[in-house]
Amino acid sequence: MPERTRTIVMTGATSGIGAHALQHLTAQPGTRALIGARPSSARPASPGTEVLPLDLSSLAEVRAFAAAVLGRLDGDPVDVLVLNAGTQFMNTRARSADGYELTFAVNHLAHYLLARLLLPAVADGGRVILTTSDTHDPRVIRSAPRSLDIDAWARPGGSSLVAYSASKLGNLLTAEKIAVLPETAERHITSIAFNPGLTGGTGLSRSAPAAARVLMQGLRPVFMLLSRFRPALYMNTPEHAGQTLAQLADGTFTPPADRVYASLVRGNLEYPDPSDLARNPAARDEMWHRSAELTGLTRQE
Ligand SMILES: NC(=O)c1ccc[n+]([C@@H]2O[C@H](COP(=O)([O-])OP(=O)(O)OC[C@H]3O[C@@H](n4cnc5c(N)ncnc54)[C@H](OP(=O)(O)O)[C@@H]3O)[C@@H](O)[C@H]2O)c1
Predict the structure, then answer these.
(1) Ligand 1 centroid vs 204 CA: distance in angstroms?
(2) Which of 18, 63, 217, 259 would staple 255 via disulfide (CB 3.0–4.6 Å)?
(3) Residue 36 CA to ligand 1 centre (angstroms)
(4) Which of 12, 25, 44 has its CA nearest to residue 247?
(5) Atom nearest to 167 CA in ligand 1
(6) Is residue 250 lining ligand 1, measured as CB closer than 6 Å?
(7) What pLDDT, on the 0 to 100 scale, is given for residue 209?
(8) Nearest CA to ligand 1 atom 24
(9) pLDDT greater than 60 at residue 133
(10) Catalytic residues
(11) Which helix (H) or strand (E) holds 119?
(12) What pLDDT is attached to residue 250?
């Protein structure tokens, strides 16, 4: 009997790590990828890919994208939901369409809403993967959150480094909460928060001055040397990080039971403890409930 088509829904598939992951995933026969992308994004040429409009800076667009995905699925399940898009700015003055600080809105709030809207469509035995970052962890970035301050993070102003770390903590706590939902256990859904680690040559630092970006790439050997003492400074390639993301998505790699955080440490996939805050059930639940309020989720959703 022919195997049914495997359906992947993905954000952040048009550049960097996600573009490489998409190439790996769609190289496997019988794969259909529904990806959300802005009109200005590069159009992936991968076979089996359908591009639907999505700007994560607007919660209305997130809802429209989720509805469009459900329409295209026509009752078929989503085998893998890969929430990989991300952005980083030099300051926190910009607001989303809904008035929230743009980094926190795009990286966390939009993906939180998308996960909530599409989780019911994820297949039994399916996977949900959010791309997080080790910069959520004060052991890596000293200014990363040690306690929750969700309302402050959602407001423009403040440090851009904190905004990025907080948004990636949001991704991690969302994955942790999905992992313990009764429906996830009943339906054997695997929830993963993937940290690609420092990865040079992607578009993430595009808002940084060109000279800083060139310098960063030129300093790759220095980073590699320093990573002997500080593993977080090991600089991965987008190809390797993308391949690992695809392998987590296609089931080549599965975290051990009770582990959600999957991290590239010096280029190798490990399942270490995330930060203390990311392992705190009260923080996990507070992020989940406050994000529902901030994204306007109703009780029925
Ligand atoms: N690079 C690193 O060192 C590093 C380290 C740890 C974690 N990460 C995480 O890895 C993920 C991928 O990042 P990357 O390094 O591959 O960067 P990238 O090349 O800039 O890719 C980011 C992706 O997100 C999409 N995106 C950004 N803003 C969006 C929006 N408002 N609406 C819809 N899509 C949007 C981009 O679409 P466009 O093509 O339209 O720009 C692109 O496809 C991110 O979640 C990032 O936080 C990266």
Answers:
(1) 5
(2) 259
(3) 12
(4) 25
(5) 47
(6) no
(7) 75
(8) 85
(9) yes
(10) 164
(11) none
(12) 97
- pTM comes to 0.96
pLDDT for residue 2: 54
* Distances 53 to 66, 192, 292 between C-alpha atoms, Å: 10, 25, 23
> Which class for 142: exposed (0-12), middle (13-18), buried (19 or more C-beta within 10 A)?
exposed
User: In this structure, what token pair is assigned to residue 221?
Assistant: 């050997």
How far, in Å, from the CA of 198 to the mean position of ligand 1?
Answer: 13
* CATH number belonging to domain 6-294: 3.40.50.720
Closest CA to 295 of 88, 153, 114: 114
Side chain identity at residue 284, one-letter code: R
181 Cα to the center of ligand 1, angstroms: 27
Instruction: Give 14's DSSP letter.
Output: S
Measured CA distances, 279 to 152, 184, 259, 273 (Å) = 21, 18, 10, 8
Where are any strands of DSSP class E within the chain?
Answer: 6-11, 31-37, 49-53, 78-83, 122-131, 190-195, 261-265, 268-270
Whether the CB of 103 sits within 6 Å of ligand 1: no
Q: Is the CB of 236 under 6 A from ligand 1?
A: no
**Structural domain boundaries in the chain:** 6-294
